[in-house]
Amino acid sequence: MRLITPFLWFDGNAEEAVEFYCSVFPDSEITRVSYKPDEPGAGSVLTIEFKLRGEEFIALNGGPQFQFSEALSLMVACETQEEIDYYWDKLAKDGVPMACGWLKDRYGLAWQITPAEFLDMIDSEDMEHNSRVMAAMNTMIKFDLEALRAANRGE
To answer: Where are the domains of the chain?
Structure first.
């Protein structure tokens, strides 16, 4: 296990959520499942350790006490518009599209489906350039990579 691993709290549907995430992301797998000790033989899942594109996570069936919020989101760096479209379509299905590449999936977890080059686009010493790219981003729900690239070029 890594020193820092995202630990995701679900309300009894961790197993369903993890299976969904593993179906969306290539090179993903469930690596360990533990069961609630007070329910021997019942098969109630307590935690599920899993990897998405090589990144480790743990899901917990913690109950209704806590809900996800946008204060924590998972960013998916995408190389192409096709990749943006794929992850957006899969994760937004039965979820809530937000703005600027953000969405909440059907389990309430916030995601940012972002072009891999976006952070470089807004890392210029020219503040007018950065403002132009940010202004383009602010018109979008799902990212349009070509429109961002055009704003980056000053078009």
So the answer is: 1-65, 68-155
Rounded CA separation 76/125 (Å): 25
pLDDT in tens, the chain (155 residues): 678 999 999 999 999 999 999 999 999 999 999 988 876 555 689 999 999 999 999 999 999 999 999 999 999 999 999 999 999 999 999 999 999 999 999 999 999 999 999 999 999 899 999 999 999 999 999 999 999 999 999 99
Calpha distance 24→91 (Å, rounded): 8
**What residues pair up with 35 in beta bridges, in sequence order?**
45
CATH code of the domain occupying 1-65:
3.10.180.10
